[in-house]
């Protein structure tokens, strides 16, 4: 078997072309949808993401507002800025880039974002709505991963889905979406006994661990769909660095039915889903 490589970059570009059309229709009768992104501190990786988010936001015809606070910014300052943006009519979506510096309580900040503007889907109200299948803003990375799964499998009901990783931003919401689609869902984590055996039962595998190429090809069930969420920067032979996922991609090519690459898989989908959530927030809020 030769795995189909799922082209997240191409699918995300198509999504944005569709969003751009919708936005151009919308702005005939309302102001441009706006996305505000707040970064605290000067982590270079965060800046790369935030720049590319801003660029793509503008490309689909929306307004981008960027806020940079120093690493020394207080929790109070950040909460103040969130409150200002909650009340800013031009702003439909608010994203606070994670992780935050340790002296800031991230949970408190996420709860301060107006749920209607919570385009990350991290506010407890949206987490609850998604968990009960009652709507709510769906977190971007799981949403994008689900679109990639659907691009290769029409009906996933009854399939065994295994997620490695139980974070609030990827693993847990991914489990909710797969359960909603009637998969039999297993969530594995650092305390899981015999991870290779658990992974080996997966018809759909989602790896969201943050450990370069931890999932080996021999673990993967033949014929499965492999979604690699991991983004890990590692040293390359040429002395530079490169991105690799949480899955040993090359080892899976003759086992999996389909697999996402890193880069060019889930990452670009995350940003397109963020823009989709922003458009959704704008239409809902201004209706
Ligand atoms: N493509 C994209 O758009 C995005 C990519 N990412 C990437 O996805 C990866 C995961 O991110 P995130 O969810 O935030 O990470 P976290 O660090 O929050 O969570 C990692 C999870 O992996 C589990 N884990 C760690 N080591 C092992 C192990 N040896 N065996 C099994 N499970 C293990 C942890 O278990 P435990 O809970 O027991 O500690 C934890 O649940 C990262 O590489 C990140 O960069 C993240 C967000 C978006
Ligand atoms: N509040 C919040 N929401 C997030 O959604 C969020 C966050 N904080 N903090 C950081 C993580 C990570 N994340 C990525 C988004 C896009 C790519 C992406 O586009 N990656 C490209 C490669 C980019 C490169 O070359 O560095 C790819 O995989 O092809 C990666 C990672 C969103 N996150
Ligand atoms: Mg997101």
Task: Describe this protein's structure.
- The chain has a 6-stranded parallel beta sheet with strand order 1-11-8-7-5-6. A 3-stranded parallel beta sheet has the order 3-2-4, sandwiched between helices.
- It has 287 residues and is of the alpha/beta class.
- Helix content is 40%, strand content 17%.
- It contains 10 helices and 11 strands.
- The structure holds NADPH dihydro-nicotinamide-adenine-dinucleotide phosphate (NDP), 5,10-Methenyltetrahydrofolate and magnesium ion.
- Magnesium ion binds at residues 120, 139-141, 270, 274.
- One of its GO terms (molecular function) is methylenetetrahydrofolate dehydrogenase (NADP+) activity.
- Catalyzes the oxidation of 5,10-methylenetetrahydrofolate to 5,10-methenyltetrahydrofolate and then the hydrolysis of 5,10-methenyltetrahydrofolate to 10-formyltetrahydrofolate.
- NADP(+) binds at residues 165-167, 231.
- Its EC number is 1.5.1.5, 3.5.4.9.
CATH class of the largest domain: Alpha Beta
Q: Major sheet: size, sense and barrel closure?
A: 6 strands, parallel
Kindly estimate the percentage of residues that lie in beta strands according to DSSP.
15-25%
Spans where pLDDT lies below 50 across 5 or more residues: none
Report mean pLDDT, rounded to a whole number.
Answer: 97
CATH architecture descriptor of the largest domain:
3-Layer(aba) Sandwich
What is the CATH homologous superfamily assignment of the largest domain? Answer: NAD(P)-binding Rossmann-like Domain
Query: Please, how many domains?
Result: 2
Q: Which ligands does the model contain, each kind named once? A: NADPH dihydro-nicotinamide-adenine-dinucleotide phosphate, 5,10-Methenyltetrahydrofolate, magnesium ion
Round the Cα radius of gyration to an integer and report it.
19 Å
């Amino acid at each position: 078997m030769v795995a189909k490589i799922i082209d997240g970059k191409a699918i995300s570009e198509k999504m944005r072309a569709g969003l751009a059309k919708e936005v151009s229709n919308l702005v005939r009768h309302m102001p441009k949808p706006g996305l505000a992104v707040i970064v605290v501190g000067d982590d270079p990786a965060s800046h790369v993401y935030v720049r590319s988010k801003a660029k793509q936001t503008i490309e689909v015809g929306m307004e981008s507002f960027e806020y940079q606070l120093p690493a020394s910014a207080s929790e109070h300052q950040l909460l103040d800025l969130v409150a200002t943006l909650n009340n800013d009519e031009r702003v439909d979506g608010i994203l606070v880039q994670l992780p935050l510096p340790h002296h800031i309580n991230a949970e408190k900040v996420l709860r301060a974002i107006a749920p209607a503007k919570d385009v990350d889907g991290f506010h407890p109200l949206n987490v609850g709505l998604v968990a009960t299948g009652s709507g709510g803003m769906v977190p971007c990375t799981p949403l994008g991963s689900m679109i990639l799964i659907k691009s290769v499998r029409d009906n996933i009901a009854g399939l065994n889905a295994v997620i490695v990783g139980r974070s609030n931003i990827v693993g847990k919401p991914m489990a909710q979406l797969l359960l909603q689609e009637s998969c039999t869902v297993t969530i594995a984590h650092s305390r899981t006994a015999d991870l290779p055996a658990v992974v080996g039962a997966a018809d759909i595998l989602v790896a969201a661990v943050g450990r370069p190429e931890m999932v080996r090809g021999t673990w993967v069930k033949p014929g499965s769909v492999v979604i690699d969420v991991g983004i890990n920067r590692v040293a390359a032979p040429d002395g530079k660095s490169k991105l690799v996922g949480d899955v040993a991609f090359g080892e899976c090519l003759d086992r999996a039915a389909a697999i996402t690459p890193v880069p060019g898989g889930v990452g670009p989908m995350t940003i397109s889903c963020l823009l989709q959530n922003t458009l959704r927030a704008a239409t809902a809020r201004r209706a």
